[in-house]
Fold:
Amino acid sequence: MFLLSLFFIDVMEMSELNSGLMISIIALTAMAFAPFCGSLSDKIGSRWFGVVGMIIFACSMYLFNGLTATTAGFDLFWRLMIAGAGIGITMPPVISATIRNVPPDKVGMSSGITNMTRTLGTVFGISLLVAFMTFEMAPQTAIAKNQVINLIEKDEIFSGQLKNEMKEELNNPNFSIQDAPTLSDVISKMNDTEKKVLKGESPIAQFVTKTSFDKQEEEMKKIWPDVSDIFKDHAIKAFGDTFDFLGFLMIIGAIIAFFSDGPKSSHNVRECN
Structure:
């Protein structure tokens, strides 16, 4: 969910509210599956719920790799529902298994340890995903910057000064795709540069300078969709690789879940009684 919210906001340019509403589809779908799967696991065990649920969730991660900046409507909705189904099938049976397989006097301790482990897993998982996405984003940022610089260099309208300023900003070590400037930011900087250049010039020189900057501003508006697409395409590639990595982790989890508990035996039932 953390990774999806970043994708919705940074790539698809959703508001925080709309991103939260989209994420809620996962929670609502999980709620629909949880009661049925939780009660049924008490009869047949949690093993296959864990295996099937994690495989479904892994499939949803691979499906998220197909998202683009313009994906909307049903194409997004059904992917989110699959992810929610995977969570709803997995979580209640797995959590109930941690309580079902301990003596009655240890249930409180088991519940506490389970909650602590789940919290630590969430913190560690988010840290791992952020580290992996940062690792994937670095080369994609470098490729995107080179493509944008080549696009700027080939343009015949931009002045040498403007080209050097844009290349300097792109080559900033702290530059990242996620923090790429917007068109309004670039135009604002161009206007500031124009004001500095106009100071001290004669009226005729000011007219020539202003005409030149107006042409460059129009050219920037013309090529900006291409610049934006370059940044978004490479950001999508980094997110897609991270989704695939998360799907791979879920497959490992499904293998581990296969060795979890089976049905509750009559021997254990008598012991509990």
Notes: The mean pLDDT is 84. Residues 140-233 form one domain. Residues 9 and 17 are 10 Å apart (CA to CA). Residues 203-257 form the longest helix (55 residues).
